[in-house]
Amino acid sequence: MVPDRPGQGGCGTCSRCLDACPTGALEAPYVLRADRCLAYLTIEERGAIPTELRGAVGDWVFGCDTCQQVCPHNHRPHPAADAALDSCQGAGAYLDLERLLTIEDADAYLGRLQGTALTRPGREGLIRNGCLAVARLGLVDLSPLLCRLLLSDPSPLVRGHAAWALGRLNDPRCRERLLDASAAEADPAVLQEIRRAVAGDAGL
After folding, report:
1. Each residue of 49-107: pLDDT tens digit?
2. Which of 40, 76, 100, 148 makes a 20 to 30 Å CA pair with 163?
3. Helices 122-136 and 106-113 meet at what angle, rounded to 10?
4. What local confidence, expressed as pLDDT, does residue 85 receive?
5. What residue spans define the domains of the chain?
6. What are the φ and ψ backbone dihedral angles of 45, each rounded to 5 degrees?
7. For 47-73, b where at least 16 C-beta lie within 10 A, e where not — what string?
8. 104: closest CA among 149, 50, 46?
9. Which CATH class is domain 16-75+96-198?
C-alpha cells in the first residue's frame, strides 16, 4: 500500500479541538494532558477512571475522536483505499452495550473481539467503559445488567463502575440490589462507590 503524501501546512489558525475536547485535555495549542484524554483513559488506563471525568466519557466506550471530528483538515476525508480500514470491519462502527455488558469472562471477550484493537483495554477495561456509557446515555433499561455486574462480577473495577452508573441512573428498581451489594461487598473502594450511589452522590 502506498502511503499518503506528507500533509501540507499545519494547524494553529483555529481552536476547534481545544474548545471541543470533552475533558479539557488539550490545555493549549500543542499541549496535551494525556491523563485527562479519553483515548488514554478508555484504552490505556488500567484502574478506575477519575470520578470527575466519568460524566465526560459520553458514549465513547473505546477511545475518543472528538478533536479529529472537529478539525477542519478532516472536513472531507477520502474513503479508505484498504477495505480492512472500513468502519464496518472488525467489531463494526458501534458496540452494542447490552451485548458488551453480558460478556462473562476473558475467553468470551477474546472470542468476540480477538483480532481487533478492542482487546487492548481487556474485558475489565471495556466493560468499565460500557458501564459509564450506559449511565451517561441514560439507558435505564440496562440497569438490571449493571445490577448483575455489581453483585456477581469477579472484577472490583467492574463492580465499582457498575455501582457508580447505577447511582447516576437512579433507577428505583435497583436500590434494593445496591443495598444487597453494600452488605456483601468486601472491597473498600467498591463499597465506597456503592455507598455513594445509595446516598445519591455519584460525583455527577
Report:
1. 999 999 888 888 999 989 988 998 887 766 766 665 555 555 556 789 999 999 999 99
2. 40
3. 80
4. 52
5. 16-75+96-198
6. -65, 130
7. ebbeeebbbbbeebbbbbebbeebeee
8. 149
9. mainly alpha
